[in-house]
Amino acid sequence: MSEVVDGAGERAVTAANQRAAELPAQDWGVEDTIARVRRGDATPREAVEMAIRRIEALDPAINAVVWKRFDDAIAEAACIPASAPLAGLPILLKDAALQDCPFHHGNRVLAEIDWRFPHTDVFTHRLLAAGAIVLGYSNVPEFTSSGTTESQLSGPCRNPWALDRSAGGSSGGAAAAVAEGLVPAAQSSDAGGSTRIPASANGLFTIKTSRGRTPLGPASSAWFDIVNSLSFETRSVRDFAILLDVVAGPDRAETVTAPPAAGAYIDEVGAPPGRLKIGFAVRSGNIDAASHPESVRAVEKAAAMLEELGHFVEEAAPEPLLKENSTALILAYWPAKAALHAARAERIIGRQLGEGDLEPLTLAIVERARSQTAIDYLTCLDRIRDFGRRALAWWQAYDLLLTPTTGSPPPPLGLMPRLDPEARAASALWGRFTPFANLTGQPAASVPLHWTDDGLPIGIQLVADYGREDLLLRVASQLEAAFPWHERRPPAAFT
Predict the structure, then answer these.
(1) What are the catalytic residues?
(2) Beta-carbon contacts of residue 342 (< 8 Å; ≥ 6 apart)
(3) Reported pTM
(4) What is the pLDDT of residue 493?
(5) How far apart are CA 275 and CA 411, in angstroms?
């Protein structure tokens, strides 16, 4: 192991493994948990207490959970009827607000004043109304502005598959918690790959949903945040579909809503997708460097599986993906999001944030936003709209686009928070494929079909036409039946 997990970290791993040996072996997914409660095999309180025991036993090794509300969760579970759609499902939040709970976004200043969001998000309301129980918040990078979860405030979140590797970002804590078996599912968000990259790094399934499919406010900038979506990290396709059925749908306070689904998303799981025309790519216009050989292998494996399932697969991709720098375009937009978080903090503390208040990477992003004019921002929005218009035309001829989710396996901890050329190159390679769908607003899934010889997961990405989460669920469930990835688990996660 690297220095990241030597000493105290290695002792935490040993202690976690010893405590985990005392926990009962069991299935631990959304569907499994709900089914046990409905059958009367467990109560909502027992499901919550099981998650609490697993967090206390296993989280010291990975640092996925940064704030806990266990007593409140147990009390709430006692009031949940077994007939509720999510029936006492234990869950973690990332950046969907729960009223009067800490909302620090990995920032030291907000943590020092213990700032709490005054409202509960619509997304969270829908989970609570369905019977889910929030156990706490997951680890995030500062202002959710990085592809790795290594904030100075909370420390690094370690990848359960290799503790010296990144769990991804910005939903790294959410993904690591689900991969390690702390909770059956965790809320995530994705404004440039922040749901899909951690899913890839942790061997999980997710979908970055269509623009407007899930509500964002009021904690997010909501209708302003055209590249973002709130979602989940899950182990199975069925688990994801169950949760999407609960939270999907328009919010009257927002002005962008996705086309309504034809029916329940759970009914799409296992439904035949027909014979699809699928294009694939292992390069992109973001950077000149070749994708890592393992990322290429992941796509080749997926292409072969899709052909065996009866689909037509060929090398083809939208021209904007292949020839344009989608990362640069989203990075021209992203500083406005980070600056909005900073401005909220500045209103609270009554002064401008600067050096010492923000980590170097975050400060650089916020200072870039401060140097932009309104015309710069509006020009960026115009470019995003034009990029999406040209890219979406490709789906008139194809049903799906297949790429690696990440351009490399999970990088070592400690690399990407740096600002040197090596770190920038690693970050660019790692996140080269995901920004495309944020710019176009399309749904994009990360499907865990490949592991390297040394046991690191690499997901493949499937991008569907706008509004077609149903198609992604159908195809992903085909792949899951052919390669049941949820049976693969990190060494100490499920005992």
Answers:
(1) 94, 170, 194
(2) 143, 353, 358, 366
(3) 0.93
(4) 61
(5) 36
Neighbours of 413 (CB within 10 A): 24
Euclidean distance between CA atoms 259 and 468, whole angstroms: 9
Measured between alpha carbons, how far is residue 272 from residues 242, 269, 293, 333, 473 in Å?
18, 9, 32, 38, 10
Supply the angle between the helices 360-371 and 326-349 in degrees, to the nearest 10.
100
| Digit-coded pLDDT (tens) for 276-329 | 999 999 999 999 999 999 999 999 999 999 999 999 999 999 999 999 999 999
Instruction: Give alpha helix (H) positions in 2-121.
Output: 8-20, 30-39, 44-62, 70-77, 108-112
For residue 314, give both structure tokens.
């060929």
Structural domains of the chain, ranges and CATH numbers in brackets: 3-487 (3.90.1300.10)
Q: pLDDT by residue (tens digit) across 98-137?
A: 999 998 889 999 999 898 989 999 999 999 999 999 999 9
Pairing of strands 155-156, 150-151: antiparallel
Cβ–Cβ < 8 Å for 96, 171: no
For residue 128, the one-letter residue type is L
Gap between the Cα atoms of 232 and 198, Å rounded? 11
96 pLDDT more than 90: yes
Do 357 and 108 form a contact (C-beta atoms < 8 A)? Answer: yes
The C-alpha atoms of residue 301 and residue 176 are separated, in whole angstroms, by 25
Reply yes or no on whether the pLDDT at 177 is more than 90.
yes
The alpha-helical segments, DSSP class H, found in 350-420 are: 360-371, 374-392
- Residue-wise pLDDT tens digits, 17-30: 444 434 454 568 99
Task: Go through 155-168 and write b for each residue having 16 or more CB atoms within 10 A of its CB, e for each that does not.
Answer: ebbbbbbbbbbbbb
Amino acid at 63: N
Please report, for residues 60, 111, 389, 434, 469, the alpha-carbon distance to residue 464 in angstroms, rounded to integers and kept in the order given. Answer: 38, 39, 15, 13, 7
